């Protein structure tokens, strides 16, 4: 083979290699993740204060916890979400500080969640001030959440967390429903990625973890 021919082959091979590398880089950029506007949001644009007023009235949710004593669960420091009941801003760590808390993570479209929520409400009624049950709605459709709670007759305080910041901070498995038990000192006692059929089941799994007398 002549020298000129050899160089032609080498140059063509280099050009092809560069083309393949460029194609792979472009393909990687396109599939690395969704565009910024497609990321999860706290709630939909349609869920304005005016649009949520009637669903909030129907749901009649209990107020979200106010600032407790201390700094709260360390893993939740810096996380701020919306209180679904009235639209106020909640500093999650400070709100839960000094409380024994049962966090119930759910979404309006989750059938097992709908079956479990009334049991959570009954558990709160039984346990009284010994523990605080707070539900965390993990979908941006806040209107649907309020209507589902109204339909179920569940009036527990609810945090609207369409971005799932709380679950991410607590390293909760990506399943729903899931329950996180927090001790009064803010430490995580248990993460329960399962559903409960009754208040009795919840009590059996939770009471000993937070010192509720049986």
Automatic annotation (TrEMBL):
GO terms for biological process: cytochrome complex assembly. Its main location: other. SUPFAM superfamilies: Thioredoxin-like. Keywords: Cytochrome c-type biogenesis, Disulfide bond, Membrane, Redox-active center, Signal-anchor, Transmembrane, Transmembrane helix. Residues 70-211 form the Thioredoxin domain. It comes from the Bacteria. InterPro entries: Redoxin, Thioredoxin-like_sf, Thioredoxin_CS, Thioredoxin_domain, Thioredoxin_ResA/DsbE_sf. It is found in: Cell envelope. GO terms for cellular component: cell envelope. Coiled coil: none annotated. It holds the Pfam family Redoxin. The chain crosses the membrane at residues 7-26. GO terms for molecular function: oxidoreductase activity. This is Membrane protein. It comes from Mycolicibacterium agri (Mycobacterium agri). The lineage of its organism: Bacteria, Bacillati, Actinomycetota, Actinomycetes, Mycobacteriales.
């Amino acid at each position: 083979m002549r020298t000129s021919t050899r160089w032609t082959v080498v140059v063509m091979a280099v050009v092809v290699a560069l083309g393949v590398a460029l194609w792979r880089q472009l393909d990687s950029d396109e599939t690395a993740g969704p565009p910024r506007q497609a990321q999860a949001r706290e709630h939909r644009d349609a869920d304005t204060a005016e649009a949520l007023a009637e669903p909030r009235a129907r749901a009649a949710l209990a107020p979200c916890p106010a600032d407790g004593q201390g700094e709260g669960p360390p893993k939740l420091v810096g996380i701020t979400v919306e209180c679904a009941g009235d639209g106020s801003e909640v500093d999650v760590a400070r709100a839960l500080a000094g409380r024994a808390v049962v966090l119930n993570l759910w979404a309006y479209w989750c059938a097992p969640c709908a079956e479990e929520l009334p049991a959570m409400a009954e558990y709160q009624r039984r346990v009284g001030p010994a523990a605080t049950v707070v539900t965390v709605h993990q979908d941006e459709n806040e209107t649907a959440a309020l209507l589902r709670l109204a339909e179920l007759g569940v009036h527990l305080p609810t945090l609207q967390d369409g971005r799932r910041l709380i679950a991410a901070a607590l390293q909760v498995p990506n399943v729903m429903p899931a329950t996180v038990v927090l001790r009064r000192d803010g430490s995580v006692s248990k993460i329960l990625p399962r559903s409960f059929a009754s208040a009795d089941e919840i009590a059996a799994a939770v009471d000993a973890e937070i010192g509720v007398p049986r």
